[in-house]
């Protein structure tokens, strides 16, 4: 079956996605550090793989680098597997599927579907290919079949018994199967992913090729596996049925991890492939006859650093697994025949040699001469003597070597003890190194936290220093103003003093006391002025502080309004998407109604045709029975025929009634479901539009009021902020509700399609039943005619006179006409 076996390790590739919107808003750090094409460093620890793809890698680069070669291997007769493993929301489905019908955004699976046929079209025209595809989900449920069992073929290769495999001849047919499998795959909304896959997906491509001239056959299988992501409930927020699905997903991935660990250690005799159906199906992909490539998809966010490290460790363990890949070659009948003839000829020659040697041995035992063998016997005896001498020498050497062996064994025991002691010391050193590594990681994390804290404190210090500089500038300005005022007051006082001195010189000694009184009044006024200036300073400082607070509040309000605007734009985009989906669903429902009307018209026409056939059959039977009643004297045959016809007619009428009731009931169910889905979608859209218009008008009014009156106060700003936050929360809730409704619609759509298909199958069954009833009526009619003819013949044979009279009446009638 196979030849040219070769060992090869599992090829492990690491791909990081960019930071998503929620991680950017949360302020998460970008933790991976890429070192070349095969190394990535996380928190100071390096991880080496066959290839590492950074965040800016395109889908085409990923495929051309790592997945394109596997197409040639499968067409060359090898088995191949491509895995995608990682935590939820890490980009596994994007890597494997991508945007299925987008030439730039499509993933590995659609590109492989196209590449396979491109290679086939370029190969030898004497090769004939048979390609089968099949989609398997977690529970191995495909469409209407459930609980499919996993068995082994004659070569001990696992396969799924009862799964539906489709023959395909073009990439479009493969894409149809992929679309159908994607529609059957269940998704749910979590806090980390709005379209989280809730099942593993295995897409199997089986390619058989045969050379028309040489009849050589090759067979290759390609497994394309998109695993569901591991989930941490505290991050995803899973509840109810989604929580149960998360438990099953983690359990299945745990079984896969146990298999990887057992194969990576290499010391365990038992590998737990049978713990889950997924590992059982992929047994050849993990340590068997297969060339396996594994993509480990990781998140670059610091929020998911533990999950990212766990994924990278999983990839390093998987990289140590070795597979034994061989070509799946099927020998033709002619090749088997040649091989059989060759082995048969070899067996015949061996039998002849054995018989010849037995005859010579018998002659030698009987004492007869064995001509041509005396010299050979002498040589053998001489050789035996030499071998005896050598054996004696070897025995002596063995005795001496035994002593040396005992010495070596004692030395070996001593070295073994020293080795055990050294191993224990190495183990202790490794433990100490591990503890140091853990402490180093903790300290590095603390250093990062402290550096971040220092950075924040430095920024805050810079802000404080800037604020202090502004205050100092203001203080210096006020000091300059104060000094200027003091100079002016001093000049005024000096002028007054000069005037007073001149006045005192004029009036004499009587008025010497006047300047002292004037000086006291001036001092009082100066004190009052000084108090007024200090009061003005304090008021200016309070006003400056209040202005800064208002400016900060205004900036924060502007920022929150911008965020609300972005949220509103995203909600508008979601509204347009949901409107497009509702439009497509409406068109789909209209097509379904049109098909139902066509089926009803076909059913009505078939019912009319059946009624006509029944009427015609009853009329013919009635004519035949009436003719037979005129000739048959015995009434028992007549009653039996009439009762039989009545029973047939009642049976057909009951069957038609049941069919009409079933079709009416199915049509009523389809109409109710269509109306409920459309009503719910229209109501959701109406509510969303209403909320959007209300929020937009409120925001415009609030914005105009804020521009008209900037000095409304802190309480007014807080009311605006709370109002915007409430609107944002309400829009977020509406968005989540729309996503949940969309997921529910996606779940209900396959059910409606299944019901429509069952209705179509029921109609086809009804058509077949009508056809069978028509054929049965025709057979009954022919049988009744034969019975009537036989009864007529019997009556004619019993009464020849009446028969002669009847013939004569017939002749008379003919001559008369």
UniProtKB/TrEMBL annotation:
> What gene is this protein a product of?
KIF5A
Q: Where is the Kinesin motor domain?
A: 9-321
Per the record, the GO terms for biological process are: anterograde axonal transport of mitochondrion; establishment or maintenance of microtubule cytoskeleton polarity; female gamete generation; nuclear migration; synaptic vesicle transport
Keywords linked to the UniProt accession:
ATP-binding, Coiled coil, Cytoplasm, Cytoskeleton, Microtubule, Motor protein, Nucleotide-binding
Q: Which Pfam families match?
A: Kinesin (PF00225)
KW Coiled coil (keyword) present = yes
The name of this protein is: Kinesin-like protein
Q: Which GO terms describe its cellular component?
A: axon cytoplasm; microtubule; protein-containing complex
Location within or outside the cell: Cytoplasm, Cytoskeleton
Organism, per UniProt? Oncorhynchus tshawytscha (Chinook salmon)
Q: Where does ATP bind?
A: 86-93
**Which residues, by range, are in coiled-coil regions?**
326-397, 423-460, 582-616, 714-776
Q: Which family does it belong to?
A: Belongs to the TRAFAC class myosin-kinesin ATPase superfamily. Kinesin family.
Q: Molecular function terms in GO for this entry?
A: ATP binding; microtubule binding; microtubule motor activity
Which CDD domains does the UniProt record give?
Khc_CBD_cc, KISc_KHC_KIF5
Predominant place of localization: cytoplasm
Q: Which domain of life is it from?
A: Eukaryota
């Amino acid at each position: 079956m196979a030849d040219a076996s070769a060992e090869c390790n599992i090829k492990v590739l690491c791909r990081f996605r960019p930071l998503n919107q929620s991680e950017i808003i949360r302020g998460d750090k970008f933790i991976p550090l890429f070192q070349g094409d095969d190394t990535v460093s996380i928190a100071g620890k390096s991880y080496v793989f066959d290839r590492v793809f950074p965040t800016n890698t395109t889908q085409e680069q990923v495929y051309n680098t790592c997945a394109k070669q596997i197409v040639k291997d499968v067409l060359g007769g090898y088995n191949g597997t491509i895995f995608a493993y990682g935590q939820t929301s890490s980009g596994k489905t994007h890597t494997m599927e991508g945007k299925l019908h987008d030439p730039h955004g499509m993933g590995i699976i659609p590109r492989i579907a196209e590449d396979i046929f491109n290679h086939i079209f370029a190969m030898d025209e004497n090769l004939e290919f048979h390609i089968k595809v099949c989609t398997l989900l977690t529970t191995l449920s495909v469409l209407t079949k459930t609980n499919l069992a996993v068995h082994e073929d004659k070569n001990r290769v696992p396969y799924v018994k009862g799964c539906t495999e489709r023959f395909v001849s073009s990439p479009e047919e493969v894409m149809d199967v992929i679309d159908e499998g994607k529609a059957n795959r269940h998704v749910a909304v979590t806090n980390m992913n709005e379209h989280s896959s809730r099942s593993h997906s295995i897409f199997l491509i089986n390619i058989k090729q045969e050379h028309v001239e040489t009849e050589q056959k090759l067979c290759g299988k390609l497994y394309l596996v998109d695993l569901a992501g591991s989930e941490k409930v505290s991050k995803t927020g899973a509840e109810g049925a989604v929580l149960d699905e998360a438990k099953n997903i983690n359990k299945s991935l745990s079984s896969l991890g146990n298999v990887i660990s057992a194969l990576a250690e290499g010391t365990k005799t038992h590998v737990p492939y049978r713990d889950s159906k997924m590992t059982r199906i992929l047994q050849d992909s993990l340590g068997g006859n297969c060339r396996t490539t594994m993509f480990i998809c990781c998140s670059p966010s610091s929020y998911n650093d533990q999950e990212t490290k766990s994924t990278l460790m999983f990839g390093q363990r998987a990289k140590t697994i070795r597979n034994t890949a061989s070509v799946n070659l099927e020998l033709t009948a002619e090749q088997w025949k040649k091989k059989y003839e060759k082995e048969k000829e070899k067996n015949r020659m061996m039998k002849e040699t054995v018989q010849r040697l037995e005859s010579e041995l018998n002659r030698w035992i009987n004492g007869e001469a064995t001509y041509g063998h005396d010299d050979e016997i002498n040589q053998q005896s001489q050789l035996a003597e030499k071998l005896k001498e050598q054996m004696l020498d070897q025995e002596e050497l063995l005795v001496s070597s035994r002593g040396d062996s005992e010495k070596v064994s004692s030395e070996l025991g001593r070295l073994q003890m020293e080795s055990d002691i050294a191993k224990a010391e190495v183990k202790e050193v490794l433990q100490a190194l591990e503890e140091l590594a853990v402490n180093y990681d903790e300290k590095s994390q603390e250093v990062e936290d402290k550096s971040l804290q220092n950075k924040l404190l430095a920024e805050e210090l810079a802000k404080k220093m800037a604020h202090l500089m502004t205050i100092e500038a203001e203080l210096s300005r006020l000091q300059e103003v104060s000094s200027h005022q003091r100079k002016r007051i001093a000049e005024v006082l000096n002028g007054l003093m000069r005037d007073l001195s001149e006045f005192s010189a004029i009036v004499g000694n009587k008025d010497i006391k006047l300047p002292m009184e004037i000086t006291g009044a001036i001092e009082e006024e100066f004190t009052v002025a000084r108090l007024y200036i200090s009061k003005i300073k304090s008021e200016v400082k309070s006003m400056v502080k209040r202005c800064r607070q208002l400016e900060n509040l205004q900036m924060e309000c502007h920022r929150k309004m911008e965020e609300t605007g972005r949220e509103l734009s995203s909600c508008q985009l979601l509204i347009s998407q949901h409107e497009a989906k509702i439009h497509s669903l409406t068109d789909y429902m209209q097509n379904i109604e049109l098909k139902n009307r066509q089926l009803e018209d076909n059913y009505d026409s078939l019912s009319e045709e059946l009624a006509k056939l029944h009427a015609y059959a009853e009329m013919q039977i009635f004519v035949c029975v009436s003719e037979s009643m005129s000739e048959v004297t015995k009434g028992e045959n007549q009653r039996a025929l009439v009762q039989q016809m009545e029973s047939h007619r009642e049976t057909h009428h009951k069957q038609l009634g049941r069919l009409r009731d079933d079709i009416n009931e199915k049509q009523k169910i389809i109409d109710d479901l269509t109306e409920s889905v459309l009503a719910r979608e229209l109501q959701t859209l109406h509510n969303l539009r209403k909320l959007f218009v209300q929020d937009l008008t409120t925001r415009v009014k609030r914005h105009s009021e804020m521009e008209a009156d900037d000095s409304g106060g802190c309480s007014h700003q807080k009311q605006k902020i709370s109002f915007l936050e409430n609107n944002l929360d309400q829009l977020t809730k509406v968005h989540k509700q729309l996503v949940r409704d969309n997921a529910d619609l996606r779940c209900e759509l396959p059910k409606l399609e299944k019901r429509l298909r069952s209705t179509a199958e029921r109609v086809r069954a009804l058509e077949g039943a009508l056809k069978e009833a028509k054929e049965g009526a025709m057979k009954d009619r022919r049988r009744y005619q034969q019975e009537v003819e036989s009864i007529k013949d019997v009556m004619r044979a019993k009464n020849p006179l009446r028969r002669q009279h009847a013939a004569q009446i017939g002749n008379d009638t003919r001559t008369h006409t």
